[in-house]
Batch of 2 targets.
Target 1
Amino acid sequence: MLKHKYSVFIFFVLLAILFFTKASILFYVLLFLSFLAITTWGAFDIRLNYFTKAICKSNATNKKNIAITFDDGPHEKTPEILDVLMEYNAKATFFCIGKQIEKHPEILKRILNEGHIIGNHSYSHSKWNGFFSTQKMVSEIEQTNILVSKLVNKKVRLFRPPFGVTNPNIARAVVKTNQIVVGWNIRSLDTVIESENAILNRIKNRLKPGGIILLHDTSAKTVSVLEQLLLFLQSEGYQTVTIEELLEISAYEN
Ligand SMILES: [Zn+2]
């Protein structure tokens, strides 16, 4: 809880000031609404590092490196994504959901065999994830790490919270499970935007060395966007690398 601590402190200082100056109720309402707005923004924008430290890009911008990350697999579409990555000799990072690993263990193995990196994206990817207790969140992370460990004998260290949502419980769970939180700084919105061109242009407009792109290995649309993106990256002289290589960190415990 980085910036959240300061917000809480400022909130109570302002509350005390309102109390001692016998301010009108309107100022209390304004204070509560502002605090709520800041906290909500902090919960939904992982780049703010509001509740927990999340690595969202590399600061080493001297190399033209870029990391493509795929969330929500392994999925039926993942093999097609892997084929395209192989064709362009690109390496990527896959933040996998535990439940999906149970459905597609062979795809998880293939991801690793082809030189890509696995990260943890919770066990259930529940839409109620933001309301889970610390203990429940710990078990969400541990269940997936155990699955990966049993299948491929790797102890995962990289975690990406579902929907990029963070809060005090998730922050504590990450510390307890010794995970490194990895976010992104280029959100493709590939699950929201219909047009492939619009998705591609969104990425191109935000592209900078050291960037982390968020995609999902769950649709034919993304397979097609990936092919065009890799062509573009190649023509611009970018190297597409894993999170491990981009951030010079180790993705697994020894
Ligand atoms: Zn997700």
Target 2
Amino acid sequence: MSEAVDDTVRAYDLDAAAYAGAGSQVPDSVRADIEHFAATIGTGARVLEIGSGGGRDARLMEELGLDVRRTDITPAFVALLREQGHACDLVDPLVDDVSSPQGPYDAVWANASLLHVARHHLSTVLSRLAAVTRAGGLLRLSVKEGDGEGWSTHGSIRNPRHFTYWRAPALEAVVAGAGWSGVSIRAGVAGKRGETWLELTAARGPVAA
Ligand SMILES: C[S@@+](CC[C@H](N)C(=O)[O-])C[C@H]1O[C@@H](n2cnc3c(N)ncnc32)[C@H](O)[C@@H]1O
């Protein structure tokens, strides 16, 4: 792990329970995306979640009939979800095996998690996610909108976390270059602190024979 990822994971590790408690309400735009996502892939579809955090989105996806594999890079989030009785795997999507013995997933859900991946690594992560998703399967991710990168301390996490900010054209190019097609981005989605977000959906392109 790079130093930035290491420090970011340590920051979440320290305050995972506070984060989970503070963020238990699904924001409207995320709820709408989950409902649309579930309706598109259908009941029983298998979803790989990257960065489950406090488990908020997985709960709603399951209520809507999806079969979610929870994962997180932060040990305290994994422990917290296990304490709640859920299976959850400690996974760094940049290096760890994300495949499933049951075969390719129908979709990948990565809300506000890949914003911690270094810009030069995002293509690798997205290609690895594409490799474990069936042709036509969905990707939905969100990142903070902006330029450059930086450390930020806010919310229930007391120590600084490292963020990579994205603009829509650059993000679209990276996603399309990593095996995903039909990329659609909603820009300027308002966050809680005056920041804006990019919410992206795409489909896994054809898989080479
Ligand atoms: C802002 S929280 C979002 C959690 C949850 N998805 C949500 O929307 O509430 C960021 C999540 O990304 C995870 N994360 C941190 N660094 C990461 C990395 N390099 N790759 C993937 N996930 C990472 C954190 O452990 C945490 O679960």
